Amino acid sequence: MKSYLTFLRRCFQAAFIGDWRYYTWLGVLTVLCFFGLNAYANQFVSGLGTTGMTDQVSWGVYIANFTFLVGMAAAAVMLVIPVHIYKNEDLHDLVIFGELLAVAAILMCLAFVTVDLGRPDRFWHLIPGIGIFHFPGSMLSWDVLVLNGYLLLNLHICGYLIYCRYCGRRPGKWFYAPFVFIGIGWAVSIHTITAFLYVGLGGRPFWNSAVLGPRFLASAFTAGPAFIILSLQLIRRFTEYRITDKGLMALRSIVQVAMLVNLFLLVNEVFNEFYTSDRAAASSYYLFLGLHGHHALVPWIWTAVTFNVISAVLLVLPVSRRMGWLNVACGLAVVGIWIEKGMGMVIPGFIPTPLGEMVEYTPTLNEVLVCVGIWAFGLACFTVFLRMTIPILTGKVSSENAK
Questions:
Q1: How many C-beta atoms surround the C-beta of residue 357 within 10 A?
Q2: How far apart are CA 267 and CA 264, in angstroms?
Q3: Predicted structure pTM score
Q4: Is the domain covering 7-395 a CATH 3.40.1010.20 domain?
């Protein structure tokens, strides 16, 4: 116990040690967090009327970010599978970075759910057995369960592996391997159940598709590893931790295949919507072409499609084996999928309404500031997690040199 408490103390101390770039980065994120907190305080006092959401469009940019970040969290499994099933040692330490990203992403997910609630003081009603939520019939209560369960799994796995590295001993497989395999299935479940949140709303035909779950997984397994590749590039450049090109190329292969699958499923959806051309396709017409003079989302979705196609082409071509082009492809993939799964997935499901009303949605400045604040909070958490972990992985902080 004494060794573990010393480990926690030294991790806490490491979070406050860095050069001017580290302090500047965290300082900027902290300022953005305060802007977001101030905007949320305004929303808390005045209600959801400060947002662009209405009775007709009841989900907005908060749920759009939530949907995207659930996929980012689930993508950690794409590092776990090659290491623990296919024994790919090139990704061994990178699993820890992926799970730290998953922890930060889930914290942001829970924050976005909280700010989306009109009465956050009633959040406890979402907890099965404690609140009075409709469990097990409600998909949202299942989502709360799997998200918090996945958070605990990742905290246990990466925390145990980092502590073993700190102590200089091999991890006991009996203590973490079962949780790794549980986590693989759990990662798939968190994004599948998120997809079921949409599919289960029968009055919204835009979401009533059997391939929505696979689409969510394909996009998650594209954006998550792509974001990790970009993060690893920064880690390699600004820290003493060495990351091999071989490990990055293994992640590139994952992003490449997942992006092609994501585009294939998108083409299937578009064909199904436009070839039949029935009344249920009105939301798709609004999204891709505009409807009755309303076309607010058309630039968004075509930007996403363009970014995803360019990213797929770059990933298929050998040019993406060069780090500069790989970073471009990954950046386009992350932004493209954020738009596709956010503004391109959530908002069109409400337009037009079941009564045929055309009520468009535009996020307010207050909403944008809240979103920026939550993203800044998540990036700050991820940065601090890395700052605690890298000295242990490089051996600079260990039980042998503990004071």
A1: 12
A2: 5
A3: 0.90
A4: no
